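Supplementary material to the annual report.
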Amino acid sequence: MASCSDSLTYNRGTEPISLKILTQSDTILVGNLVEFKVEIKPSIAYAKRWYWILNSTKHDTRPLDITFTESGVYNAAFYIVDYLDDTLSTDTVTITVANTPVCNSIELECATKTFKWDCYDKDGEKLTYSLLYTEDGKNRTATPDTNFWKPTPSMTNNWRVKVTAANRFKFQTEISEEGEPCP
Amino acid sequence: MPIALLFLITFTGASAAPLLMLPLESDVDSNISILWENSVMQLLKEAALEPKKIEHGHFANCENIECVISAARASGAGGMFRGRLRANGKDSINIRLRIDWLAGNSSPQTEIQSTVPLAWDEVLKSGIILKMLSGITGKNSDIEYTGSRNSYISVETNPEHAVVMLNGNAVCHSPCVFSDSGATAQIAAYWHSGDHLWAEKRAIKLGGDTARVFLELKRSYARTEVRTNPDKALVFNTDILSVSSKPIGKIPYKMQGLPGETQVRIFHKGYNDTLITVKIDALEKQIQFVELTPITDPQRIYEQDLFVKSRAKRNFGLGLLGGSAGPLTMGIILCVLGQDDYKKARTLKNELDQPWAQGPNFKAKVNENHKAVEDGDFKTGVGIGLIGLSVLLAGVGFSMSF
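Predicted assembly:
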């Protein structure tokens, strides 16, 4: 009798449905396109329905192509519902979308013999700067915390300066200028 | 018309038809009864009445004597002989013999009753048998009999077709005319429709003329309650007691049925089996008291103890045999329910044997599958156990019963 009923007992002989998201978490620039892909085993046929959830919004296309036009942090995961109404989901993928810093101008203020530049981040991120100063064929570098820098000793020859502004996502914008020493 | 001539005419007309002879009702020793029956049979043969012995169950569809008489008439019998022996003290017997002559349209009766010695050799010496038979058949009548002053009684009832009884004995269906020889007669009639009984009775004085009686029947709740000392005796039908006899009741026993006489056997441990005649009146509730006589013979006490034990053993065996039906039924039901559980488990397993997300609903179904298998195992196990128990009980019960 025991052997008869043993054959009626379910013992997990069949592989379950598995999901693997093929898209990696990433940081991208505004305007870039991301293709969200998922691998379903053994077949999507065992799913009664399926969908993506991207920041609380459902999308029912597979793969999901999204062009991000606004900066921000986007979390995406893929879900399937089987015919027992059980839900299975992938790990969440995080897409960070950000703008590059904007630098409008750089100028030398002769009264103080100080370089000043106008850079900002549209997303309000704090910017860091790296500066390359060249005078008389000699290069000097600096990483000022502020948007001005005063070369020491003061320039006596023609100069060239290049400022690179970077936000925390390492998105960078360069601005450069060259000129003669102040009178 | 002289009654002897009436008998002669009736007898002559019925000579070609047999005289059916019912066994004598008796509460005396069975050997005495057999001697009486055989002697009466022989003398009836010698009188060329062609007696034919029949059993009480000969007319199987009949529940009362008037039905038997009707059936006997329909079968072409010339008459119906019946009789009764009743112990009267230690040394004598009251005997009553009766013939219902069936050859004509009516049923004239001849009846004779007397007190005779209990000892058979004294009966033979006295020649009383021959005298009594002469009295009842009308041949060579030397003794005085009760049929010498017959009066006719005409009975009508509402409703008609009621059974009419004369002095407690059914004689015809109303409307009918019959005769009796007594100075008074108790006329009763009843009509029954399965569950209910309608009846009426009346005592009349008989003169020389025809007595006319009209009875308006009314609902009757008549019964006779049989009581014994000691009480709690068992009541059986009239068959000889055996271990397989089933009691029909227990004292106090309320007998309801059609008016008339019927017999039952009373059994009480330590007392003689007693065959009693219970008379059920047409209208009145009656109580009949029976004093049981204790057994004093050690051999009979031993035999009765053995009988009681055998009966108890058989009843216990039959109880086990009957009781085995319960476990058998329960066992079968449980096995069927167990198979239902297995079927459910198989369906669930087939459903689960494909890729699933394996979420809570899946786990619930797995648990359901396991529970169905466990339930099936439990019910099947218990069911088989009960069937085994039933077989065991039936086997033990069977061996104890037979």
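Chain B touches chain A through 27 residues (CB under 8 Å).
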